[in-house]
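We emphasize that the prediction below concerns an isolated chain of 226 residues; any contacts that depend on oligomerization or on bound cofactors are therefore not represented. The input was used exactly as deposited, without trimming of termini.
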Amino acid sequence: MNSQQKTTAALSMLQIAWSTDMTKERMKLYVSMLADVNSVTLEQAVANLIKRSKFLPSIAEIREECSALSAYVNAHDEMPIAQSEWEKVIKAVGTYSFEYGKEHLEGITLTAARAIWSSFDPRMGHEYNEASCRSQFIRCYEQLVDREKHRQRMANSIKDNHVLLKAREKAQHDKALISAGQKQIEMTATGNLVEVAKEPVDVMKVLEKSTISDSAKKLIRGALGG
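Result of the prediction step, given as a token string:
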């Protein structure tokens, strides 16, 4: 049984439960839009929705149920709650001090802690407000968790789309170049200025095209190790 047949089989319960609503044309659309979902996950998601839905579930509803199932199976929804991570931050500061506490935190907790870490500086004196720091940390932590869940959903949605995967890789490469200082400003066709990554310079190629003497080229190659 190929992947399309497995998807069709997983969705067959919808045809039985909503025979008048699930036309052949609609079934083809559902199969096409849900072909990237694991058939075992899809079958369970459909069963779950049949038990609680009065009307034919939309493609979006089925995908949401599949995502929820996958998150549970892979323990993605079991990320520590913000309050417990705040307690880790307080413990790290109290045990290892302001100078070294961050070394004992990691992941999203560390990222959120950086936003308020200066508040733990002993030089702040009486300006430290634990309630305010806790509130800021929890808000930042929860935003980072939501962002990570969104990133995971996007990554899963394009895992089989080679065109979008290549575009993502190029964007990450360009971002790395920009972060490293290899960037330039260009004007788009609409007149907007944008920051883009510069292509690495091939020094040897530039040297070969230059009009300087052969002896000078030889000296430069030697200095460059070429």
